[in-house]
Design brief:
two-stranded antiparallel ribbon; 634 residues; Pectate Lyase C-like; 15 helices; mainly alpha
Length: 634
């Protein structure tokens, strides 16, 4: 879409023009006559329609009036035929039963029946069961008449409705004459009288339905939507247009067409005229409550709980004492809005602009805000963090300048980590350092990750609040930290498991060693004494052949130095996570052996063999030299 046309259309006559698929971003249509203009699929971002005249062209209005009159005429004909046949049926019954009664008496019965039906219809309307009542066969007559009149009035206004009503009466008269012409001349007047009387009752009922439809009674919502659809044919068409940030303040919108594909983010409808007669199915304007708020800006004391108001333009709106609980106002504009004592419990406020808004005494329990929520310049004397005016902030007095913004700015720039089974601080610090290093690499901010607070919620539950830079994806930080923390826990658990296995091995070896000593001592005690042998120097252990063997003791300091050197060389290698975990386990096992008075050659050699297999092909000669030196100590 290239913009090759001028963008200033202010006060111009553009009736019937087509701007389909055009890029008209920033165009000025203020005061222009755009009745019948086609803006389908047009880009109208930041367009100005202030005081523009939208809707139907004059010829389309005449066609609508003719259509309404024709509909009323046809409905009247069928109404008259129905009444006439009803008259003849009753007369036939009386004649069959040989009851003497004149035509004028039958006329009275017919009129009474239809007035009774009209009265019952109004009764059921009051009881909100009108459409169930219309399921009765005779209700079809009045329903057809009502649709014609109600649709005409709802669409084109009282003028077209009057024309439609006149057409209906004319049709009724034509139908009556047709039936009367087919019958006896003596009964013609009676038939016409019956038709007129019944038609009058139908007209009054239809007028009543029309009034309720215009007043947007929910019972007649389907009639109203049908009328708005037909009445907007040929009107200003905004279907599938992009109206982001457009201005329709004080524009006449009667007969306009919007649909669910129309982008209406942050569109201003303040003081728009006849907005209730625009066809807005599938948009924010479809909901009467939301439409009135967008149009008047006055929502004081009203209930908007659970409503969808995404992208609504509510600048300077008065929402004092309004209930916005669980409503979705994401992407909405509430600059300088008055939200005193408003209920924002669980309200979705992502990417919402609250700059300059007044939150004094508002309930902000569990409202959903993030870094895209704008609170710049917002203020409050005090707020409540829980419903029913609980958890006042501040606890006493009022907020100083900018304190309210700072309170929630801290919330916006923190990530909460919840630990349900206590905190393993070793795993926490390792994971915390890992995430901090990632942030240094990816964040443009100089701010580092830091712990803001640690809260003990009881029963082993802890909440750690961590300050994060504003340009960081908090959900991603939370996910990465949680995964790393679980990995560190698993690694620590593996280390403890190795230590337990080592302990069990050492106990078994010690028992085996003691058993061997007892057997040797017992064997030596049973041998005859041949020579006196004096042994000095190192400790010796004799075997059963009488040969003395030197027991070698390994220097722990030498082993520690070699293991430290091995760790340093291995740290220079590049290994995947799985191999690195295995190496850590074996290196920790070697370190634990250095703490023993007598390291186990079996365990040490097993670890060295495993390490050699893991780093095969990835390590240089230095690593294997160290491994050989450690093995040589045994």
């Amino acid at each position: 879409m290239q913009n090759n046309i001028p963008l200033d259309f202010s006060n111009q006559n553009l009736r019937g023009k087509s701007f389909k698929n055009k890029n008209l971003s920033g165009a000025d249509f203020s005061g222009a006559d755009i009745r019948g203009v086609n803006f389908k699929h047009a880009i109208l971002r930041n367009a100005n329609f202030y005081q523009a005249k939208c809707g139907l062209r004059l010829r389309n209005k005449f066609l609508l009036i003719l259509f309404s009159m024709l509909g009323g005429f046809i409905s009247g004909v069928f109404s008259a035929l129905s009444v006439s046949f009803f008259f003849l049926i009753i007369k036939g019954l009386y004649e069959e039963l040989s009851i003497g009664i004149d035509d004028y008496s039958i006329t009275s019965v017919v009129i009474i029946v239809f007035f009774l039906f009209a009265s019952l219809s109004i009764f059921f309307i009051k009881r909100k069961n009108f459409f169930k009542f219309l399921q009765i066969g005779i209700g079809v007559l009045v329903l057809g008449f009502a649709v014609a009149v109600a649709a005409a009035v709802a669409v084109a206004g009282a003028g077209a409705g009057a024309v439609a009503g006149a057409g209906a009466v004319a049709g009724a008269g034509a139908g009556a004459v047709a039936v009367a012409g087919a019958g006896a001349v003596a009964g013609a007047v009676a038939v016409v009288g019956a038709v007129v009387g019944a038609s009058v009752s139908c007209i009054f009922l239809s007028i009543y339905i029309v009034i309720r439809t215009i007043r947007e009674d929910e019972q007649f919502n389907s009639l109203r939507k049908s009328g708005l659809f037909w009445g907007s044919i040929g009107g200003t068409n905004f279907n599938a247009a992009d109206l982001t940030d457009a201005n329709f303040s004080k524009a006449t919108l009667k007969g306009c067409r919007f649909n669910k594909n129309t982008v209406m983010n942050r569109v201003c409808f303040k003081d728009a005229i006849s907005i209730k007669y625009a066809n807005c199915k599938g948009t924010l304007l479809e909901n009467i409550t939301v439409r009135d708020l967008l149009n008047t800006g006055n929502g004081s004391g009203k209930n908007y709980s659970g409503l969808n108001m995404k992208g609504a333009f509510l600048e300077n709106a008065d929402l004092t004492n309004a209930d916005l609980s669980e409503a979705d106002i994401s992407g909405a504009i509430l600059q300088n809005a008055i939200l005193r004592n408003a209920n924002l419990n669980k309200t979705q406020c992502l990417d919402t602009d609250f700059s300059g808004a007044d939150f004094t005494s508002a309930c902000l329990e569990s409202w959903n805000i993030d870094s895209t929520t704008c609170l710049q310049g917002a203020y409050a004397e005090y707020v409540y963090l829980l419903s029913y005016q609980r958890e006042r902030r501040p606890n006493s007095g009022i907020f100083l300048e900018n304190e309210f913004c700072k309170l929630f700015q801290e919330i916006l720039n923190t990530v909460d980590f919840i630990f349900n089974n206590g905190i393993d601080w070793q795993a926490f610090m390792v994971s915390f350092d890992n995430i901090r290093e990632q942030i240094k690499i990816h964040s443009e901010s100089d701010n580092e990750l830091s712990v803001q607070s640690i809260e003990n919620k009881g029963e082993g539950v802890f909440v750690v609040k961590v300050n994060v830079p504003p340009d960081i994806d908090k959900a991603q930080i939370h996910e990465h930290f949680s995964q790393d923390y679980q990995q560190q826990l698993a690694l620590i658990e593996d280390r403890f498991q190795v230590k337990l296995e080592m302990k069990d091995t050492e106990i078994a070896r010690f028992r085996e060693h003691n058993t061997d000593l007892k057997q040797i001592i017992h064997s030596l005690a049973n041998r005859p004494i041949r020579d006196q042998i004096n042994v000095t120097g190192d400790t010796v252990i004799g075997n059963e052949q009488g040969i003395l063997k030197k027991q070698t003791f390994i220097s722990n300091e030498s082993l520690k130095d070699e293991v430290s050197a091995l760790k340093a060389e291995i740290s220079k290698l590049t290994c995947n996570n799985t191999k690195q975990k295995e190496l850590d386990i074996h290196l920790n096992t070697l370190e634990n052996q250095t703490l023993l008075n007598q390291p186990s050659p079996t365990i040490v050699n097993s670890c060295l063999e495993s390490i050699s297999n893991i780093i095969q092909g990835a390590a240089g000669s230095a690593v294997f030299d160290i491994i050989q030196r450690i093995g040589g100590l045994f």
